[in-house]
Design brief:
280 residues; mainly alpha; two-stranded antiparallel ribbon; 3% strand; elongated
């Protein structure tokens, strides 16, 4: 006769709930799968399917009731791990969007803004264009599949546990966020340099011929030069964007290893042993 106890039910719930929390958090934070255009039913179905595949391969489950306070804390910790892994990839897209923002402001397209439903904020036209280019590159190199592979690998690197994770991973995530500014400036540097030369040439031209209307001829020229430079540099953006994706996925893969480490325990200072007969 088949008998099912409450302990067995708790194990079944925990084996699906805890991996699902990490997986759904990564799907919600990832730049492609977490897009608002993807239906919620597709996200939930994908998360449940991956959790059902991953659950039998997880090393061990903590002996904790999933509906208790300790079990809910484990759910919150798993969600935090998944959000951090997805955020490490979203930083790459934020860097590309920042490059578009800098280029738009330099070209004079600061007024051509749109509402971005992904970030729930304002986004420029060039930023949206470069974001679409980065999305196509993300799909062309199968980075979404590699990200899911890193997610499955994280259950072996950082298993589900009731032990709190090491807080040093948050500092590394903050340091990785600095790539938004450095990479954004580097990607937009050719456009900014070309438009700087253009503005200097327009300044010399208006100085030599004061009767020219700078506001009448300056905007079409800077806009045309900016679009021309974007068209010329677009074929060369594939390699740096691909390297950025590789760095982001590697960061997402190494982050669970960082959180699984523990800080070294400082040993208490001991006074030196003095031989008998010697006074301090």
């Amino acid at each position: 006769m088949l008998t099912i106890s409450s302990a067995d039910i708790n194990i079944w719930i925990a084996s699906l709930l805890w991996p699902l929390a990490r997986i759904m958090a990564l799907i919600a934070a990832s730049p492609l799968l977490g897009n608002s255009a993807v239906p919620a039913s597709v996200k939930v179905s994908l998360g449940v399917g991956i959790a059902a595949i991953v659950a039998p391969a997880v090393p061990a489950w903590p002996a904790t009731d999933p509906l208790s306070m300790a079990g809910l804390l484990i759910v919150a910790q798993e969600m935090l791990i998944g959000l951090a892994m997805g955020f490490s990839i979203r930083i790459i897209f934020a860097a590309v969007e920042m490059a578009g923002e800098i280029s738009s402001l330099t070209m004079g397209l600061g007024f051509a803004t749109f509402f971005d439903p992904t970030t729930q904020g304002r986004s420029s036209a060039i930023s949206q264009f470069l974001s679409l280019v980065a999305t196509m590159a993300f799909l062309s190199v199968n980075a979404h599949l590699v990200l899911l592979s890193a997610l499955v690998e994280s259950f072996s690197t950082l298993p589900v546990s009731s032990i709190p994770v090491y807080g040093g991973g948050f500092k590394q995530l903050a340091d990785w966020g600095g790539r938004i500014f450095s990479t954004g400036v580097q990607l937009s540097l050719p456009i900014v340099a070309a438009l700087l030369i253009t503005n200097v040439a327009l300044g010399i031209l208006t100085r030599a011929a004061p009767q020219l209307n700078l506001f009448g001829i300056g905007f079409p020229i800077t806009l045309g030069v900016g679009l021309l430079v974007i068209a010329m540099t677009l074929p060369y953006l594939g390699t740096p964007i691909q390297n950025l994706f590789l760095d982001g996925i590697e960061r997402a893969r190494l982050m669970p290893r960082t959180w699984s480490q523990r800080p070294p325990v400082a040993k208490p200072a001991t006074s030196p042993v003095r031989p008998p007969g010697l006074q301090p």
